[in-house]
Write a structure and sequence with these properties.
45% of the residues lie in helices and 0% in strands. The chain is built from four helices and no strands. Helix 1 crosses helix 2 and helix 1 crosses helix 3. It is globular.
Length: 101
């Protein structure tokens, strides 16, 4: 069964609100990040925050799916369901893989 992320929506919402200083009463799981002023650079920040908070590596290619809380929760759930390996301490996985030498 495909992961839909329902079990992570509340945690992702809390992270979004904390990371971007958004009032949780003003958004729901389907509010587009663009409406919150979250551009692509800030979505990269969210991806890194999710990696750190949940201890998993997420692929930067998933960034296009991080358009709202539900999308972020689904990306996380699918990564965990697929057996995402716990992260090692240090830079988030996508930063380690994309570092310039």
């Amino acid at each position: 069964m495909a992961a839909d992320g329902s079990e992570y929506v509340d945690e992702i919402k809390a992270l979004v609100c904390e990371t971007f200083d958004v009032d949780p009463e003003t958004i729901d799981e389907n509010t587009p990040f663009a409406e919150m002023g979250v551009d692509s650079r800030r979505r990269v920040r969210l991806l890194a925050t999710v990696e750190v908070e949940f201890g998993v590596d997420l692929d930067l290619d998933e960034l296009d799916r991080l358009v709202d809380i539900r999308g972020a929760a689904t990306v996380l759930a699918e990564a965990i369901e697929a057996g995402a390996k716990p992260r090692k301490r240090g830079l988030p996985g996508f930063l380690r893989r994309n570092r310039l030498s």
